[in-house]
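Weekly structure sync, notes
Attendees: PL, DS, HV (note-taker this week)

Item 1: Glycosyltransferase 2-like domain-containing protein
DS walked through the input record. Source organism listed as Pseudomonas taetrolens. Sequence as pasted into the shared doc:
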Amino acid sequence: MITVLTATYNRAYTLARLYESLERQTNKQFEWVVVDDGSTDNSKALLDGFQQTATFPMRVVEQRNSGKHVAINTGVALAGREWIFLVDSDDALPPDAIEMFLSDVKDSTRENSVGYCYRKADLAGNMVGNVITAPRLAEPVSPTEAAALYQGDLAYIFRREAMLKHPFPTFEGEKFVPELLIWNRLSDEGSIQYFDHKIIYLCEYLEDGYSANFAQNLRRNPRGFGVYYKHQIGREKSLTRKVKCLVRYVQCRVFGVLKGRKS
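Item 1 (cont.): predicted structure, written out as tokens:
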């Protein structure tokens, strides 16, 4: 039913936590596909050891360091299950994560579901983002609106067939494209079911992660961010947000020119 897909780069010091959380799953009807994005630490030896002891199907593929978005494309192509659960190598899953998802899929009456969206918590169990207390009249229709509503990272599980139709774009010399670009495109394919209070994912924000280095990543990957902000202008509903995306897009164009001159 489900592939847990992990793109990793020099995360040998956190991979064991994720592996152990997968071993603790109350339902083992999943496979773990790991794409090693050119790690230079001892990730390979560690992953080889996990494959020897794993109580669930596990596959590891190595690629030249190209960025998380390329690693996701690689993993989706290799996945052998209907659903893709993207889990970062520095995070973990609560013991009932897989069981929760499979139960929700079984109970769903939707015929055009392209994805499921759950909440994340920190390693101490505190929910990330807004706690929704009042019933919502309608679900967000896109990940853009979900981001505005929840104000925190979300855990998405998408149908593999849809992800194959919408791979991340790649740009020579760049190693990052915002995930929301693709999540929005996937939402155009069908509905996403949102769960306000179900925590399916435990996360940790590291100092060398993308979230902590936004400005630097923007300068290094102007075309990847540029295509995102260009499309996002039309996605946003408020004028303020549209203007902010336009400003970011102009920044990306400027950074792209400057980067081209340096090369």
